[in-house]
Design a protein that fits this description.
Pfam family, one: Glyoxalase
Keywords: Dioxygenase, Lyase, Oxidoreductase
Shape: globular
Oligomer: single chain
Order of helices and strands: EHEEEEHEE
Number of domains: 1
Protein name: Catechol 2,3-dioxygenase-like lactoylglutathione lyase family enzyme
Strand order of the largest sheet: 2-3-4-1-5-7-6
Distance between the termini: 23 Å
Structural class: alpha/beta
CATH architecture: Roll
Largest sheet: 7 strands, mixed
GO molecular function: dioxygenase activity; lyase activity
CATH superfamily: 2,3-Dihydroxybiphenyl 1,2-Dioxygenase, domain 1
Amino acid sequence: MIHFKRLDHVLIPIPEGKKEEARTFYSDVLGLKEVPGQHPGGALWFSIADIELHLREEAGGTYSKRHPAFEITNLEEAKRELERRGIEITYSSEIDGRQRFFFHDPFGNRFELLQFVA
């Protein structure tokens, strides 16, 4: 069983070459605070309520890295359970202070499970 704690972030795609336009819209129009740093894939991160909104440039097409990310309390146990059920686990770039992995549901939707580490 997976012990969900909270929604951590949502990643949504933006067209290639539109990063500065997105930064202006989300910062100036919506008034979100940008989370500084060098983020995976050159993404922009913003604080929104008690979660983060991640924006990442993507080429058009059917494949997307968009996903919700859920913080859980038992990452290794969740990984073993999903693998036991035949669900493929994938990994991405590392983020300091977080362990994480990805999986897809039967319909191709991508999900991230993560756990903060000291």
